[in-house]
Write a structure and sequence with these properties.
alpha+beta, Zf-an1 domain, three-stranded mixed beta sheet, 3 helices, 23% helix, metal-binding, zinc ion binding
């Protein structure tokens, strides 16, 4: 092999790491004879051709789709659109706010705190009524 320097592809070819997928008759699972499996070029670089036995294009596409991860949405203050990072505050109205707008009176909160507190008191404190007729 020659000692020429070049790109990472050239280095991979020298080390025998370059692999290519070759489908001789479309995408089939038929393996060709051993004479077709290795191609040699005149520059003394050897390219090894590998064949996949799966033959299923759907499984390859499904594997590619699972590797892609959607980017997480950057959270911003609902009022001033400032980037929050780790300092964001979640309000009971369901929105995220910065330190300036985290209180309900600064961002015109739509959550009804009074009704929520009244409901909580009703659940925790049942009504106690004395019996109308006393037992003897």
């Amino acid at each position: 092999m020659c000692e020429c320097t070049g790109s990472t592809t050239t280095k991979q070819v020298k080390q025998g790491e370059a692999r290519q997928t070759f489908y001789p008759f479309g995408k089939t699972s038929v393996a060709p004879s051993s004479s077709d499996a290795q191609l040699q070029y005149t520059h003394t670089h050897t390219f090894i051709v590998t064949y996949e036995a799966s033959g299923s294009e759907e499984s390859v596409n499904a594997a590619l789709e699972t590797e892609e991860k959607p980017k997480a949405k950057k959270s911003r203050c609902f009022t001033c659109r400032k980037k929050l990072g780790l300092t964001g505050f979640q309000c009971r109205c369901g929105n995220a706010f910065c330190s300036m707008h985290r209180y309900s009176d600064t961002h015109n909160c739509t959550f009804d705190y009074r009704a929520n507190a009244a409901e909580k008191l009703r659940e925790e404190n049942p009504i106690v009524v004395a019996e109308k007729i006393q037992k003897i």
